[in-house]
Amino acid sequence: MPLEFAPEGAAALPLHVIEQDALEDWLSGQSATVATWVQAAGFTGGLGQSLLVPDGNGAPEMALAGYGTEAARKRGRFHLAAQAASLPEGVYRLEGLAPERAAEEALGWLFAGYAFDRYKDQKPAKATLVAPVGVDAARLEAIAAGEALTRDLINTPTSDMGPIELEAACADLAKAQGAEIEVIRGEALLDENFPMIHTVGRAADQAPRLIDMRWGDTGPNLTLVGKGVCFDTGGLNLKPGSSMGLMKKDMGGAATVLGLARMIMALKLPVRLRVLIPAVENSVSGNAFRPGDILTARNGMTVEINNTDAEGRLVLADALSFGAEAEPDLMISMATLTGAARVAVGADIAPYFTDDGVLSGALDAAAHEVADPVWRLPFHEPYEAMIEPGIADLDNAPKGGFAGAITAALFLRRFAGATRYAHFDIYGWNQSAAPGRPKGGVGMGARALLQALPEVLAL
């Protein structure tokens, strides 16, 4: 099913959304035949239940969707996506859904149409929805398409999504949306002063590169920086096998900013958008960088390497320095950066760091509104000493293991200069399937950012 709504005016079967404690009242307004059918089928209005109700000739007359209780709904999101997956193929029109929930549930329904089927036939939901009255259908379709791009990029293994293929995906997006793209590859990174991107990626077969995409010629300057480590072995500090299995998703930051960029461009937001992606593989070879090496970043700061598995902050540092040179109105970095962030908030929440109260307030409100949970963590300045090793300006992997997400964010902030800045430390992966969110790659924080941008940038 395409990630879009049924055409306006399409013949649609009514889908009555019924809360559990409202079922009796709803049944009292129906015919005895309908009431008997519903009761005989054991439909209670429980969250996730669905039921087709036939007419006198046995053809579907309506469908019912259980909406449970408010307490049950607080434990998840996109609840009607479960019905999108369980109802038979057809076109449906929501009835009885509170207007304030319509956009979230309609978007979840679109998400239910996603399946990663590059290597095997899958079975996404084929039930199509008529856009509910009052929702911005084109906006939700653009969001769904951007999310699908993010999921596809993360789900694709590195054998088919290395730096070359990630560059190609960026080029395809640029062509489709009328953006411009420039790429600096291999030894040219040294000539153009991106030494840490080159160092992290030089041991791989595919050359490291910096992808620079630009779109729009009016409005505030918005720069999105995404970590594009297409696979992370850990380098010479080799990861154990149990930690390496999901490292195809270590370019989840790049995938998420590309999905967000697609949303922004498709919706034609009045911004001058720039996307910077350092695309590398952190591999093991004779010329891999080593623990104890001291690197000089683009902005002149020196970095002692105490763990080659803390490579994402290195490639982001050069990209952030480059982005800050243009003095954008807002710069956002997104990265699958630290396990500490997962320990702090789990896999379902996107923690972020910023010094900007307006940005934080807008993000928190937007996250609640669009069901894209985020949580602000602090740039706790007393921890700055933890990333200062003495022998160099910065340490890429402070000893002790405490506050790993914060120290990583403080490291990155050193390269953002005076730019208005926020950093997202995302996971980019659903560990188990949920309505509208199959197991696998997922965008985190992008929809909250999209919702917050008009307030943050005064659009």
From TrEMBL:
It comes from the Bacteria. Belongs to the peptidase M17 family. It comes from Roseovarius atlanticus. One of its GO terms (biological process) is proteolysis. One of its GO terms (molecular function) is manganese ion binding. Residues 307-314 form the Cytosol aminopeptidase domain. The lineage of its organism: Bacteria, Pseudomonadati, Pseudomonadota, Alphaproteobacteria, Rhodobacterales. This is Cytochrome C oxidase subunit II. Signal peptide: none annotated. Keywords: Aminopeptidase, Hydrolase, Manganese, Protease. Gene3D superfamilies: Leucine Aminopeptidase, subunit E, domain 1 (3.40.220.10), Zn peptidases (3.40.630.10). PANTHER family: LEUCINE AMINOPEPTIDASE-RELATED (PTHR11963), PEPTIDASE B (PTHR11963:SF20). InterPro entries: Leucine_aapep/pepB (IPR011356), Macro_dom-like (IPR043472), Peptidase_M17_C (IPR000819), Peptidase_M17_N_1 (IPR048816). GO terms for cellular component: cytoplasm.
